[in-house]
């Protein structure tokens, strides 16, 4: 085989360039955005203690599998507290976006596993126990 054909042959055998990953599904977008919102809210509470209004914002622990999350999102987005705080405005924009996604675009993709509204107010902390280390 001619040496100049070897690179061409290798290129053909390598195949087409890898395709881009699939775009996010409705479910993955909702899950990612809910985690971002929860993390942003926790960060806001930790970094804005000088702003007294932050203490009076509704709690924002989100579980997109709980039917009560829709009311929780609506209440948070409509709360009048902190309307002058830029970080809260940005968070409320994300909350409105998630509410819109859940309530219209991805409504058929949702599966609610619970309707326990207290679980969104007082979430059960998740603990991880390694196998073989149980008491």
From TrEMBL:
This is Cytokine-like protein 1 isoform X1. InterPro entries: CYTL1. The keyword Phosphoprotein does not apply. Keywords: Signal. Residues 1-21 form the signal peptide. It holds the Pfam family CYTL1. Coiled coil: none annotated. It comes from the Eukaryota.
């Amino acid at each position: 085989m001619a040496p100049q054909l070897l690179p061409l042959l290798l290129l053909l055998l390598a195949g087409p360039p890898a395709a881009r990953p699939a775009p996010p599904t409705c479910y993955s977008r909702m899950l990612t955005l809910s985690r971002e919102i929860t993390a942003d809210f926790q960060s806001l509470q930790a970094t804005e203690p000088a702003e007294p209004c932050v203490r009076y914002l509704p709690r924002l622990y989100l579980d997109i599998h709980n039917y009560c999350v829709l009311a929780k999102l609506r209440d948070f987005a409509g709360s009048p507290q902190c309307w002058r705080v830029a970080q809260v405005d940005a968070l409320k924009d994300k909350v409105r976006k998630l509410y819109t996604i859940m309530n219209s675009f991805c409504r058929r993709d949702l599966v609610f596993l619970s309707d326990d509204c207290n679980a969104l107010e007082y979430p059960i902390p998740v603990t991880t126990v390694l196998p073989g280390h149980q008491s």
